[in-house]
Amino acid sequence: MFVVGPGPANVPVGSGCRALIQIAGSFLTPFPISGPAAPGQGWSTLSVGIPPSMPLGTTVAVQAIILDPGSVFGWSATNALGLTFQ
């Protein structure tokens, strides 16, 4: 899942894990993972439409979460990124 939130955060979600985006006001979108089933070898692309009403300078926080059978918790997450529309 690709998570887009209104800003950065550091929210505990259990088992020592943290969501690095604001949960309130966020939305999820699924995306496919490609590449070999080996650590660090997966990749994906995601195209999104930006509404023309989006004010320039708007910043959102994004983070990806994937199912990961090799992880102790069964999933892994990226670091969060800030995305500013210019």
Short account of what is shown:
This protein has 86 residues and is mainly β. It contains no helices and seven strands.
Characterise this structure.
The protein is an all-beta fold and 86 residues long. It has one domain (1-33, 57-86). The chain is built from no helices and seven strands. It has strands at 2-5, 8-14, 17-21, 27-29, 59-67, 75-77, 81-84. Strands 1, 4, 5, 6 and 7 form a five-stranded antiparallel β-sheet that branches. The protein has a two-stranded antiparallel sheet with strand order 2-3. A hairpin with a 2-residue loop joins strand 2 (8-14) and strand 3. The chain is globular and about 40 Å long. The two termini are 25 Å apart. The model has no long low-confidence stretch (mean pLDDT 85).
Tally the structural domains. Answer: 1
- What structural class results from the helix and strand content? mainly beta
N-to-C series of helices and strands: EEEEEEE
Note the overall shape.
globular
Number of strands: 7
Helix content: under 10%
**Low-confidence parts lasting 5 or more residues at pLDDT below 50?**
none
Over all CA atoms, what is the radius of gyration? 14 Å
How many H/I helices?
0
N-to-C CA distance: 25 Å
